[in-house]
Amino acid sequence: MGGGSPANLDVISVSSPQFRDGDPLPYGYSCNGLVGNPPLRWSGTSGAKSVALVVDDNDSNNGAEVHWVVFNIDPDTTELGENTVPRGSRQGTTTSGKVGYVPPCRPADSYRFTVYALDAKLDLPAGAPLSETLERIAAHTIARGRLTATNIQ
């Protein structure tokens, strides 16, 4: 196995009160719904200097499509409310060029909600370019956890 993340990363437990890992993403959180992002909870980020969240669609024919990037989340934060952004955090640019949660649209695709514990705060502005944000997150990741919705309800 070449490349990728080191195997010695600690594991973050990620969950949502709205769906379980492997279940469909509830309709309201898709581009046809009006709710915005789903609520998330996580544990296992102790020792982190900041937390980041990346929501992507790995089934896209054009490679992974990123629907949301949030970084510099306070490391003491362990949950994200429905349609909210943690206070003090920043949002980066998504694949579509927008900043903020871009609700998924493809009903048959899988959507990954990945939480990263980082060993630093990212010195990036709100709206930072996607490639730069993902590169910095990868470079500083000390733990990672994921919740996957297998399609849209």
UniProtKB/TrEMBL annotation:
Which family is it part of? Belongs to the UPF0098 family.
Native organism: Acrocarpospora corrugata
Which Gene3D superfamilies is this protein grouped with? Answer: PEBP-like
Protein name per Swiss-Prot or TrEMBL: YbhB/YbcL family Raf kinase inhibitor-like protein
Q: Which taxonomic lineage does the organism of this UniProt entry have?
A: Bacteria, Bacillati, Actinomycetota, Actinomycetes, Streptosporangiales
- The annotated region (Disordered) lies at 79-101
